[in-house]
Amino acid sequence: MHARLALAIWPVGSVRGAPYPCGQTRGVTSMTTLSQFSDAMRALVDKTAQRVVAINPGTRNAASGILWRAGLIVTAEEALGDDERFELTMPDGMAVAATLAGRDPSTDIALLRVEGDAGAPLELLKSASAVKAGHLAIAVGRGTNGEIAASGIVQECGESWRSWAGGLIDRRILLDLALGRRSHGGAVVDAAGDLIGLAAFAPRHRALVIPAATVDRIAEQLAAKGSIARGYLGVGLHPLRRKRGEGAVVVSLDEDGPAKRAGIFVGDTLTAWNGAPIHGVHDVFRKLGPDTVGSTVTLDVTRANQQTRVEVVVGERPHR
Questions:
Q1: How high is the mean pLDDT of the chain?
Q2: What GO annotations for molecular function exist for this entry (predicted)?
């Protein structure tokens, strides 16, 4: 059976007890349709699970990952903790070792390199731009006893956005389904079995999708370099709310960081970035994307009730 789902709806007779197509009764038709839908859903999960692995970190709960390319697994960075070596359970049940090839906390994507044959990758057949609110979504992970599945709908689908750490996510896709911890980092597919993206968690344990386009873009860079360049000021910030506007107060400085070299001091309040108001700490970090490394930005600063401007050359965030 093809994994594409189709739920047939028969017309309802105008007279109670009227015959249905092919002589079926209402009850038989309903049960047959539900059984076909159930079988198609199972076939879709089975097809997807052939490209999903279980990840067993040494210090955290187990998670899932997607076979991205030969020998490479993509998963949720947050699920890995500080481990760099992992044991994977492959779709055929075989246990293999893997090492960390790269990670990007700002997009919650990590790449693992498998020691040996990892099987065929799950093709990135569909762009997340084709997904709309109301579309069916199925999350597929892998646990100790085999595949794990949860189904629901796309609850929200918005434009591109930046995470609190400045990572660019191609679409904002939230799901109305209960995502288990073991499915974290697994695959989310649509009714045709095409990959929507990688299963992750938003605040308050809501199910979030990192779109396939974002996964592909970041995994390419991780495979080549092992990390993603991010902007860095070398400041510790705390939100500051005042009667007239908002800002971020500097509470610590990296002694060798860009801000310290530019003349920023502990106690300064950052109020604007290239003329755009800074409303809080997240505003600053969201602006520190890859494109800012090496660029010069103008920060509006309040110091001892005096306004000043400081030009800072953005550095590259140290890799952990």
A1: 85
A2: serine-type endopeptidase activity
Whether pLDDT at 125 is above 50? no
Q: Which domain does 16 fall in, by range?
A: 1-49
Question: Do 20 and 121 share a structural domain?
Answer: no
Query: Bigger pLDDT: 54 or 12?
Result: 54
> Based on the structure, what is the number of domains in the chain?
3
Residues 6 or more apart whose CB falls under 8 angstroms from that of 246 comprise: 239, 240, 277, 278, 279, 280
**What are the phi and psi torsion angles at 154 (to 5°)?**
-75, 115
**CA angle, 206 as apex, 205 and 207 as ends, to 5°?**
115
Sign (positive or negative) of CA dihedral 150, 151, 152, 155: positive
CA distance linking residue 149 with residue 172, whole number of Å: 22
**Do 134 and 147 sit in the same domain of this protein?**
yes
Average pLDDT of the segment spanning 229-240: 91
Q: In this predicted structure, what is the pLDDT of residue 58?
A: 65
pTM of the predicted model as reported, rounded to 2 decimal places: 0.77
- Cα–Cα distance for residue pair 240/247, rounded to 1 Å: 5
Residues 286 and 162 in one domain: no
Q: Mark which of 27, 49, 71 sits at the end of a domain.
A: 49
The residue type found at 285 is F
- Are 175 and 209 spatial neighbours (Cβ–Cβ below 8 Å)? yes
Give the model confidence (pLDDT) of 244-269 as tens digits: 557 999 999 999 999 999 999 999 99
How far apart CA 318 and CA 320 sit, in angstroms, is 6
H or E segment and range at residue 236? strand 235-241
Residue-level pLDDT at 60: 63
